[in-house]
Design the sequence.
C-alpha cells in the first residue's frame, strides 16, 4: 500500500513552447537544491523533468507542470505532475518501452524518466489527455 | 537569432556549449556545424559540454546526429568534459551515445583529434615537431 502524501508547497508552470521546457528545468533545479538533494539526484530529476515537459509539449500539445514539495511523514521529496489535454496514450506499456516512439524520437523519454524517478504514475484517457506524476524522494 | 559560436583552429572546429540549450538552439548548432564542416573541409569537431548540467535524450540525439553527419563529411567528432552526474544519469535514461567518441577534457580530446585527422595533411596542421 502506498503511504499518504502531504503537499508542503506547490508551483505551477505553463508548458506551451520550447522555452517553457528550459524554464521548467531551471525551476525543478531550484526546488531540488532547496531540498538539498545530492548532485546526482538533482541531475536525475532535472533530466526527467526535461523529458516529461517535452512530451507534454510535443505529444500532449502543451499543458502544465506542477512542482511540489511533498512528505509522507518520514521523508521529503520533489513531486512533478505534468498534465495536458492532448490525445492521450492508447497503450501505456508500449509507450514506456525503450525505443518506442510515435514520432521520430528515440523513444527513451518516458521509460527513462520512470527509471530516473522513485514513484511514477501515468493516468491517461484517449482523446482526453494525460497526467504523469513522478516523485523523487530524498 | 541566438547561436552558439563555432571556433576554427586549423582543420578543427571547436564548440563550447555554455547555455541551457532550448531545442531550437541545439538544432541550429547542428545545422551550423554541418555547414562549417563542409565549407571549411574541417577534419575534426570538438564539443565541450563541461558546462552542461544535464544531457537529455534530445541533446543526446543532437550530439549523435552531429557525429554521424560529420562522419559522412569525413570529419571526426569528440565530445569532452561530460560531468560525472550527467554520465550516470544518461546511462539510467538508457542513452549510450552510440558512435560518439568522448574524452575527459579538452586537452585529451584535442590530442585524439590531432592523431586521427590524417597527419599527412601537415601543411595545414600546426603540430610541434621537436625531434
Ligand atoms: N503526454 C503525452 N501525450 C500523448 N502521448 C504521449 C505523451 N507522452 C508520451 N507519449 C507517447 O509515448 C511515446 C514514447 O514517449 P518517449 O518520451 O519515450 O519517446 P519520444 O518522445 O517519442 O522520443 P524521445 O523522448 O526519446 O525523444 C511517444 O512517442 C508518444 O507516442
Ligand atoms: Mg519524449
Sequence:
Amino acid at each position: 500500500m502506498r503511504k499518504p502524501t502531504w503537499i508542503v508547497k506547490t508551483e505551477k508552470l505553463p508548458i506551451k513552447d520550447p522555452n517553457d521546457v528550459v524554464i521548467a528545468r531551471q525551476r525543478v533545479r531550484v526546488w531540488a537544491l532547496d531540498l538539498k538533494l545530492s548532485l546526482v539526484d538533482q541531475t536525475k530529476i532535472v533530466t526527467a523533468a526535461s523529458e516529461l515537459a517535452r512530451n507534454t509539449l510535443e505529444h500532449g500539445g502543451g499543458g502544465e507542470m506542477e512542482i511540489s514539495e511533498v512528505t509522507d511523514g518520514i521523508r521529503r521529496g520533489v513531486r512533478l505532475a505534468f498534465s495536458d489535454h492532448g490525445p492521450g496514450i492508447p497503450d501505456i506499456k508500449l509507450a514506456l518501452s525503450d525505443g518506442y516512439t510515435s514520432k521520430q524520437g528515440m523513444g527513451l523519454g518516458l521509460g527513462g524518466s520512470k527509471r530516473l524517478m522513485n514513484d511514477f504514475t501515468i493516468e491517461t484517457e484517449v482523446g482526453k489527455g494525460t497526467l504523469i506524476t513522478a516523485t523523487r524522494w530524498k | 537569432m541566438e547561436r552558439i559560436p563555432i571556433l576554427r583552429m586549423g582543420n578543427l572546429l571547436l564548440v563550447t556549449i555554455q547555455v541551457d540549450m532550448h531545442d531550437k538552439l541545439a538544432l541550429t548548432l547542428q545545422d551550423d556545424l554541418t555547414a562549417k564542416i563542409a565549407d571549411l573541409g574541417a577534419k575534426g569537431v570538438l564539443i565541450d559540454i563541461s558546462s552542461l548540467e544535464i544531457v537529455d535524450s534530445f541533446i543526446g540525439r543532437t550530439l549523435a546526429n552531429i557525429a554521424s553527419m560529420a562522419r559522412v563529411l569525413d570529419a571526426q567528432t569528440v565530445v569532452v568534459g561530460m560531468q560525472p552526474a550527467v554520465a550516470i544519469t544518461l546511462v539510467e535514461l538508457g542513452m549510450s551515445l552510440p558512435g560518439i567518441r568522448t574524452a575527459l577534457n579538452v586537452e585529451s580530446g584535442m590530442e585524439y583529434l590531432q592523431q586521427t585527422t590524417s597527419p599527412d595533411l601537415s601543411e595545414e596542421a600546426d603540430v610541434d615537431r621537436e625531434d
